[in-house]
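We store chain and fold; thus.
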Amino acid sequence: MAEPSDAALKRTHNCGELRSADVGKHVRLCGWVRSYRDHGGVVFVDLRDREGITQIVFDPSGDAETHALARALRNEWVISTAGVVRPRGTDRVNPKLPTGEIEVLADDLVVLNRSDPVPIDPEGNDAVAEETRLRFRYIDLRRPEMARNIRMRHAICRAMRSVLDEMGFIEVETPFLTKSTPEGARDFLVPSRLQPGEFYALPQSPQLFKQILMVSGLERYYQIVRCFRDEDLRADRQPEFTQLDLEMSFATEADVMEVTNAVFRRVCEAAGRSFPDDVPVLSYSQAMERYGTDRPDMRFELQLRDVSEIVRGTDFNVFAGVLAGAGVVKGLCVPGGAKFTRKEIDQYGEFAAAHGAKGLAWCKVQAEGFAGGVAKFLDAAMQARLREAFGAADGDLLMFIADAEEAANKALAALRNKLGADLKLYDPEAFAWCWVTGFPLVEWNEQEGRWDSLHHPFTSPALEDLDILETDPAHVSSRAYDIVLNGVELGGGSVRIHDMETQRRVFRLLGIAEEEAELRFGFFLQALRYGAPPHGGIALGIDRIVMMMVGASSLREVIAFPKTQRGVCPLTGAPAPADARQLRELGIRLAPGRKGPEGSGGQGQEA
């Protein structure tokens, strides 16, 4: 096919732009053939580009060669066409299209490229296997839904940059090839050819670099950055992901939260959403007590209640046994739940069991007293107090889980979310934001017999808890915070440790000896010795943010070229075996049983 002339590529308009005011203009459009209709002479083509669709008409009374070429067109061919804009006529207006009042009567047609029959119909509504969509992603991205998602992602990133620039932040890039500094997940390692036997690590986050930038005096940094974690995947995880990373000197928790609220306010404007004037702030303990999770869905109430003291002394052995063992009895009140059948209640019990509950106790609230389930084990005084604790009304259903507090919270949190969806207790289009603050600094690792950071080892303990850091670490709060939307964590951060003495104390608590600390974080610890200011920051997951803004169910719907849940790219075939010569240059020999190219030390070649 001959190269097109320059004139064929000089569009005057895009395919979503023309209106009635353009009637009479001679225009040139370029795009893909969305559909064609040959009405025994007159050929109608819907031409699509990024901005929309315009109907093109090829009349047999015009140029014969152009008309003959138009009759040969097929879907997804790429063409350039020119002609005069004319009204469709009132009886042929298409109200579904912004360009539906006009059409272009073509007098020129250039085929820029042909297309084989496509494996995915960009305009079709038929279900297509995700593997197929990812393999032919370049066609999948032509679908209006995907194009909208990618453009929304662009608008959101632009909004973030805009508001941070106004607030005095400086964008700085940090390295991709860096040193392994474990942050809770496995690193992706990159072998060095120039330093045989040694490895770079792809960053799980720019954490240490952004703190070093605060020591450098930049004061306000941000970056839209790619991060990498070698972890098990799911719908809201990818091995490579993008986050808005920011850090501020001379800042408190409130300062970081104020900036983050401003970012989300601008993001919501770009997405056509509203953002509240005031975002509720919950402490970690409040979130766990009321919702059983540190990622509460605030679109509906249905709060949990700890009723351990109310039911203490009951004859119900399950409750009595758990309370004797320092467990808890927690529950929730299902509005109108007394109408549930026994089968439906049992199904909720099975759901709770799938989330770790050992059982689900229940009773129905009636005017004459509680009925069914464990009602017979609850005396009149207990029933009165339970009514008051839950604010229960006649016709409601009380559900209880008795277990260790952590297990009870986990099961009830899942049960609460399911009930909220099943009973339509909230508008699925609504957005409900909250901040959760004051997370525990550390958690006990039973398997390893040590304390682990809940966030990372550079998170500052709450100043009022420094006195009990060594003596009662389980009750030390951190200066960490998360922002949550509809039960999904969109970002998290903390005020950092900026003085060496506190950092040494935290390292000792985590069992990190000075020698190990120097080996893992020496370059960063050295920076702290040279006038590190108080500082804090946050990282916001851009993939999740876009997913929430467009209402997608998976991150793969908002990333141009994502991986599958097996970490595979169907488009490129990555990961793939390395060439034997490359492996030799890197000094790498695959262990027996590992797949690889012939001659590399592996056992055969992966297809």
Q: What stands out?
A: Residues 576-607 form one domain. The chain is about 30% helix and 20% strand.
